[in-house]
Amino acid sequence: MTSITKKINIYLGKTISDALKNLSVSKLKICIVIDKKKNFKGVLNDGDIRRALLQGENVNTKIDKIYNRKPFVLKENYNYSLALKQLELRQIDQAPIIKNNKVVGILSNKKTVLDNLKVPAVIMCGGLGKRLKPLTKQIPKALVKINNTPMLSIVLNNLKKYGFNDFIFSTYHKSNLIKKYYKQGKSKNIKIRYIREKTPLGTAGSLTLIKKEIKENFFLLTNCDVISDINYRNLINFHKKNNADLTIAVKKLFTENLYGEIKMRGTAVKHIYEKPKKEILINSAIYIVNTKCINFLDYNRKIDMDEFIVKLIKKKRKVTAYPFLDNWQDIGTKQELKNFKSYLSNQK
After folding, report:
1. What pTM was estimated for this model as a whole?
2. Which stretches of the chain are DSSP H helices?
3. Which of 52, 153, 185, 311 could form a disulfide with 57 if both were Cys (CB 3.0 to 4.6 A apart)?
4. pLDDT tens figures, 142-185
5. What's the number of domains the chain is made of?
6. Domain at 328, CATH number
């Protein structure tokens, strides 16, 4: 992931000539105009420059005269899918992402550029993939393809959209194939580290193996078969704002009872609800975990996340839930894989 650099930013008082150099280097067709305190002032794109030159300006003209002071911008908690639709509706290619009057990223319909998050992302890739057999007989679950793309690559790409570039893969089943495919991540402009379980450690046990790998106060944890459009930066901000030890992203689902539901008081029927719809919250297997929480795990011992979470609650650690409505899919079974492929086909 390419981070925002000084080559994309341009200060007030600079010239069209300076802007052209910036555009040439960044290849994004946009400059972010900032003041001396690096506060966001507006944008300048190749179209603005063309119009200025056609109106008689020259390369020595100050950009203060021609930049767009009121461009379309996004807040850091933007919804990725909706934001792309806004770009399409407004017939523009990019939009700055703003936080506290500073630009933290650029959403583009071709390439998203964000400041790299200093938050590692741990992805559990060690499962045997029993429910996906025979697909996982020769390859690990992480490399099962969806429209010619390994599911792990889809997870990686979604995380990269939000600025993640430091990844740790927890592996076990056919781990050599995952490492051979992704190597150290250089081809994707990311950093990948690997740990390998000697025996299956469940969905949380391998965290004890990565403790020395993580220097940051917290990290994102998810599975290689969980694909979502959740705004990961929103999730991180929620975790920090609530001063939580562990935050669970919980997906809101709406279910319909197939039968009429009867409300009673004693033997008296008080009401009948015909096929009522209910809202439920499910664990999405996407978490933000404080690194210190790993101390509550026994080294190299098998344990699943639900057990780990219960243990933290019993230890009076603060566990919070972050509800979200964004698209989410668990690709753990052949039917779920089929459903997701059908969903992608309908999106085209």
Report:
1. 0.69
2. 16-26, 46-54, 80-90, 151-160, 175-182, 207-210, 232-241, 305-314, 334-347
3. 52
4. 999 988 899 999 999 999 988 899 999 999 989 899 999 999 98
5. 2
6. 3.90.550.10
